[in-house]
From TrEMBL:
UniProt KW keywords: Mitochondrion
Gene this protein is translated from: orf306
Organism (species): Dactylella sp
The protein's name in its UniProt record: Homing endonuclease LAGLIDADG domain-containing protein
Phosphoprotein keyword on record: no
InterPro entries: Homing_endonucl, LAGLIDADG_dom
Boundaries of every Homing endonuclease LAGLIDADG domain copy: 179-272
Superkingdom classification of source: Eukaryota
GO molecular function: endonuclease activity
Amino acid sequence: MANGSKKNSEEFRQLANGSFQSEGTISARIKASYASPIIVLGQNLNMESLKFFVRLWHELGKSGSLTISLSQSQKWVIRLTTESWKDILTVYANYFNALYGENFIALQKLNLIRELSQLKDDNSRIQLIKLVYSLAISGNKRLLPLKDQLSLWNLPYDGNPEPDTKFKDNKLLPNFPFILGFLLGDGSLFIRIRLVENSIRLIPALLLPQKSMESNKQFFNLLNRYFQSLNVTSFIVNNNQGMTILNVEGSNNIFMKLVPLFKEYAHFGYWKSDQISLLLEFAHYVSSGVHLTRQGLIAVLKIIYS
């Protein structure tokens, strides 16, 4: 029983890392003469997201705070937030060590910011401010441009906004709980309908999007390699909205190779349990050939449009 509980906890951790990769933000702010970190993970509020966040908060030793608030779009959201250096550099950095790209590098930047904050020489202070400004912005835009912030600390600006330190990215392949967590964020699972020579073709599809940026290229290559390890064909596209999207589609890829994994981890579906259940039901109809009959096709179309 203990081993099963430990396995479930580790799988949930991977799920949480995937969710954070999609929706989490790691940032820092300059307050007076010091840097303050902030980590935020949020989601629209419902009973399933409440269950997820309460469990995550407990897994993190109840560090950070859970809040429920009304967003600018007038939707209730639940957020896990911490601004504690101690919690971030110990609990959160260890728990969220399966991130990629910008997020993986951001935790390293926070660690270096903390180290530099103990030093008083001008170069260390310049690098500290550049590191803070190189992190993603959480909430409102920065009040001061980098040059003005440096000037406020009586420091020169050399015209280069990038910090001197180079950081390494995560090179390990993700696993399916991570993929499922990423799906819980901005991912999509759906059935596409195409008319082909007076017949209907039903195409299941999985989309995993993230903002296009240099630091996330390796992440998408690793996603591609993970699916290749399952003999699943995937491809990456960049759209004109500044997003990079990994696509997996087709009955062979989804029904034959991914559906067994969705079944195994269905208990981690949370607020997308309905989508996963419909996929499994749809896969059952298709595998049994029911969709080839008129009544069966009607039943399948009802599932799709539900």
